[in-house]
Specification:
Helix content: 25-40%
Mean pLDDT: 95
CATH topology: TIM Barrel
Shape: globular
CATH class: Alpha Beta
Number of helices: 10
CATH architecture: Alpha-Beta Barrel
Number of domains: 1
Structural class: alpha/beta
Largest sheet: 8 strands, parallel, barrel
Low-confidence stretches: 1-8
Order of helices and strands: HEHEHEHEHHEEEHEHEEEHEH
Distance between the termini: 21 Å
Radius of gyration: 19 Å
């Protein structure tokens, strides 16, 4: 088990970040679409708003959208199909408390001025409920379609990240490969807090120290808990070495929740088919090694979605409530 963080907690940013990430504690969210679509890459997207509102009522901490510009056959998953910022605008007006996350916006494929404006707009419209995950992208086929070099996505990611960070300043002055601002104009709106919470996904083609220094948190991938514990300890060490406040770690987890609560875990893609009791034990082990949030993905779940959500709310969420 990792050494506990100090009780002072993570540095506050906005309403979503502050409620989602708690030192030595785990919270649970859901990946949208909240439905089963294991037989093909494209979900039906039926009853999604109702399910997201149900998730909020049941006490889930967040819902997470993905940025999938094209349905790439080799990738095998079209995500929630809608543009994430358009979808976030809808959700900002149709929910009240649940955090609205993106995991993650592909920075090299969008101009950072548009990302900064759209993200700050959602943050304002939702009352500070946005958490913006960012990534360099992992689908080579998309880059030629947008006239971007896949091999240079790491450098473009850093440039875009810096541009977005600077947009919280009044009348910013800077010059990079995405554009030049001379202080004679400003980008509005500004986010609710002093900055947008930016969580970096995976390596995003960056050095680990750069990620520790620049991100407000880290989105990593499911691994064997013993390996994950070592990786999280390394992350904490890097963050501490630069004198930064503690920063959270989150990961996704695909689950297929069986009717038998005692069913043992059976591996599936990036997760498990298992009973609710085994899931609780597994999530508790993730909390112990320092994971602060898990985004559950029901793509391969075979049980009725609403029944699954209510079972999770009854048997899992109380164990991780404040």
């Amino acid at each position: 088990m990792l050494k506990s963080l100090e009780d002072t907690g993570f540095q506050p940013i906005n309403r979503a970040y502050n409620s989602l990430f708690r030192p030595n504690r785990l919270s649970l969210g859901l990946v949208v679409p909240i439905e089963t679509y294991s037989q093909g890459p494209v979900p039906t997207m039926t009853r999604q708003l109702e399910r997201i509102q149900l998730a909020e009522t049941l006490g889930f901490a967040a819902v997470w959208l993905r940025d999938v510009p094209f349905n790439v056959p080799s990738f095998g998953d079209a995500g929630q199909t809608y543009d994430p910022f358009v979808y976030l605008g809808l959700l900002a007006g149709q929910t009240e408390r649940i955090a609205l996350g993106v995991a993650s916006i592909i920075l090299p494929l969008r101009h950072p001025a548009h990302v900064a404006k759209a993200a700050a707009s959602v943050d304002q419209l939702s009352g500070g409920r946005l958490i913006l995950g960012v990534a360099s992208g992992d689908r080579p086929e998309e880059y030629p379609a947008l006239n971007q070099p896949f091999a240079e996505r790491g450098a473009w990611f850093r440039e875009s990240f810096d541009y977005i960070r600077r947009m919280v300043n009044n009348s910013p002055v800077f010059d990079n490969n995405f554009g030049r601002l001379n202080g004679g104009m400003d980008l509005l709106p500004k986010p609710v807090a002093e900055k947008l919470p930016l969580l970096i996904t995976g390596s995003s083609q960056q050095d680990p120290d750069w990620i520790a220094r620049n991100g407000d948190g880290w989105m990593t991938y499911p691994r064997n808990p013993a390996v994950q514990a070592q990786i999280i300890q390394d992350w904490r060490t890097r963050v501490a070495a630069i004198g930064a406040p503690a920063k959270p770690v989150m990961q996704p987890l695909y689950i297929d929740l069986t009717k038998n609560p005692e069913a043992s875990p059976h591996p599936i893609h990036l997760g498990f088919r298992l009973g609710v009791n085994s899931l609780l034990t597994y999530l508790q082990s993730l909390e112990q090694i320092g994971i602060n949030h898990v985004a559950l993905n029901l793509r391969f779940n075979q049980t009725d979605t609403e029944i699954t959500l209510k079972r999770l709310a009854d048997d899992i969420l109380p164990e991780f409530s404040a």
